[in-house]
Write a structure and sequence with these properties.
With about 130 residues, the protein is of the alpha+beta class. It has one domain. The protein contains 4 helices and 4 strands. A hairpin with a 2-residue loop joins β3 and β4. The chain starts with a helix and ends with a strand.
Length: about 130
């Protein structure tokens, strides 16, 4: 092989190895996911559930609902923590969360991938 081809192959290998190391270092932790999921669930509750409650019961309920969600952040995080399983694949992680709520509230399942300190929920379904 000529030297230019060897250099290009070596450079390509170095780039791939560096990318892999970067992905390993930035693979988010279970704690990072819990913070993300708590924020996402709180936003959903305030944006969808509380606004629906206001159309059914009035604006006072909406304000009170949002306050309850904010006050309940530690409890929401605890529920998510106990309901989540992490599958660590070194360069990324998959988080499976099953929120089994008491009747008549439906239960939900979520699957989220965590890679390079970012999270992407790719499946959310009513169980």
């Amino acid at each position: 092989m000529d030297k230019a081809l060897q250099f290009v192959m070596m450079l390509g290998g170095l780039i791939v190895a560096s990318s892999g190391i970067l992905m390993i270092i930035t693979n988010p932790s279970q704690h990072d996911y819990e913070v993300y999921a708590t924020d996402a669930l709180s936003f959903y509750l305030k944006d969808r559930v509380c606004t629906q409650a206001s159309t059914d019961f009035g604006s006072f309920v909406q304000s009170y609902c949002k306050t309850l969600v904010d006050t309940g952040q530690p409890q929401i995080k605890t529920i998510i923590s106990t309901a989540t399983t992490q599958h660590n694949f070194l360069i990324f992680s998959i988080y499976e969360t099953e929120l089994a709520l008491p009747a008549p509230i439906p239960s939900y399942g979520f699957q989220t991938i965590g890679v390079m300190q970012n999270f992407y929920t790719y499946q959310a379904e009513k169980l």
